[in-house]
Write a structure and sequence with these properties.
Elements lengths: L4 E6 L3 H15 L1 H14 L12 H10 L16 E8 L9 H4 L20 E3 L8 H4 L12 H7 L4 E4 L6 H14 L2 E4 L9 H10 L2 E3 L9 H14 L3 E11 L2 H5 L7 H12 L8 E8 L6 E12 L3 E12 H21 L4 E2 L1 H7 L9 H12 L6
Parallel strand pairs: 1-2, 1-4, 2-3, 4-5, 5-6, 6-11, 7-8
Antiparallel strand pairs: 7-9, 9-10
The structure holds nicotinamide-adenine-dinucleotide.
């Protein structure tokens, strides 16, 4: 695992903070984690397939290390091989600071789990475009610094992958970063619900430039979407007719504050709703999406998921679930998997929208799949068994 993965970040908010801190945590605890991972691998040299068709060693490594990753070693890369080389933001509290400091700047408010040493990556000012909505604007001060040339910075820093972590509703700004990736030949990973990897025009643009992309809208590890999808699929698989369902989410960070602006929410609702709707072969009345901002929750997110249906004998059944998570950390491990999946694509000169990486790691991929199918396809892809 000598090779590094050179990653740039657009939007140094809570998600970027959890990702940087998380990787730093794994780096600090590296020996411990690696020894366990190697022990696990050697004790599982005979990797048979389990019930869901997944190689056993991936699951066992994940469980016993508690890493929050699909596997410690994915396609030859560990979590500590991710190296940050550039970062872009637009607000005064972050622009001009070293990334190690900017991740803790207000209004970021996720949990602090790790001290991060200076990284020598200065957060550069980018074009604001539609990145900062009306609500957001009331809570932050825009930087007066001149905007940097994003494509040139990506080239100068030899970035291989750009992560898009902008606020929901940043359509123009997301397209701007996707263009800059095409211009500089950098892979684009889109964590937000603006449709790039799942849009035929953008798929074609990335394919014709020989550049990969993955997205859209990261699907958290134990998030409301994967839980809701799995429950809906269980109902369908067990012959229950789903009659109605909702998923209401609340949180107290800038992501939720920004989403009070209903005009910016359209793509988020489409993304979250389509992920659950794809699990039923018939139309189900559903309401899914962010529902309110509760400041004292900070980066905690609470989701209420409800499904009602009928089973044998036309008898009603209801499920109510409350899920509470620290939102940003819930997506960080998945992004480390997505980064490594994308790097595998770069190593193998695979371009265009990455189907299995997107289906496994994102809510609105080019092709929706059940969780088990997506995981199997993702692992087959990183193991070199398929190219999609
Ligand atoms: N589990 C999760 O947290 C999760 C899951 C799925 C999707 N997402 C999405 O990921 C995105 C990031 O979430 P977050 O909690 O870090 O949000 P955040 O509001 O904390 O961070 C967004 C950052 O983007 C910056 N920004 C705004 N316009 C910009 C521009 N033009 N260029 C560069 N930077 C710009 C803001 O200043 C801020 O620092 C959101 O769209 C969120 O919905 C998060």
């Amino acid at each position: 695992m000598a090779k590094k993965i050179r990653v740039a970040i657009a939007g140094v908010g809570n998600c970027a903070s959890a990702l940087v801190q998380g990787i730093n945590y794994y780096r600090t605890n590296r020996d411990d984690i690696r020894v366990k991972a190697v022990d696990n691998l050697s004790s599982k040299t005979n990797t048979s397939n389990n019930e869901s068709g997944l190689a056993v060693n991936y699951n066992d490594q994940n469980r016993s290390n508690g890493l929050g990753l699909t596997a410690y070693n994915l396609g030859g890369y560990g979590p500590c091989d991710v190296e940050f080389v550039a970062a872009f933001d637009v607000i005064d509290s972050k622009v001009g600071k070293d990334l190690s400091e900017a991740i803790f700047a207000e209004p970021n408010n996720t949990v602090i789990t790790s001290h991060v040493d200076k990284m020598d990556v200065k957060v550069q000012k980018a074009e604001v475009l539609d990145g900062i909505g009306d609500h957001y604007q009331g809570k932050v001060q825009l930087s007066n610094n001149a905007s940097t040339d994003v494509a040139q910075t990506l080239k100068d820093t030899h970035a291989e992958i750009l992560l898009n972590y902008l606020p929901v509703g940043s359509r123009e700004a997301t397209q701007f970063y996707a263009e800059k990736c095409l211009e500089s030949g950098v892979c684009f990973i889109n964590a937000i619900p603006v449709f790039i990897a799942s849009s035929p025009d953008w798929q074609q643009a990335f394919k014709s430039k020989g550049v990969p992309c993955a997205g859209d809208d990261v699907m958290s590890q134990i998030g409301a979407t994967v839980l809701h999808k799995t429950l809906a699929k269980l109902f369908v698989d067990r012959g229950v007719n789903i009659e109605e369902t909702y998923q209401l989410n609340i949180g107290g960070d800038m992501d939720f504050y920004n989403m009070l602006d209903e005009d910016r929410l359209e793509d988020k609702r489409i993304s979250k709703t389509s992920a659950v709707a794809a699990m039923a072969p018939y139309e189900v009345p559903m309401r899914i999406g962010p529902s309110d901002y509760v400041s004292f929750l900070k980066n905690d997110k609470i989701s209420y998921i409800y499904l009602r249906g009928k089973y044998f004998g036309n008898i009603p059944v209801e499920v109510d679930v409350k899920l509470k998570v620290v939102d940003a950390y819930n997506s960080a491990g998945i992004m480390i998997d997505a980064i490594r999946g994308a790097k595998v694509a770069l190593d193998r000169n695979i371009s265009g929208s990455l189907e299995s990486v997107s289906a496994y790691c994102f809510k609105h991929p080019p092709k929706q799949m059940s969780y088990n199918q997506a995981k199997k396809n993702f692992i087959d892809f990183v193991d070199g068994k398929t190219d999609i």
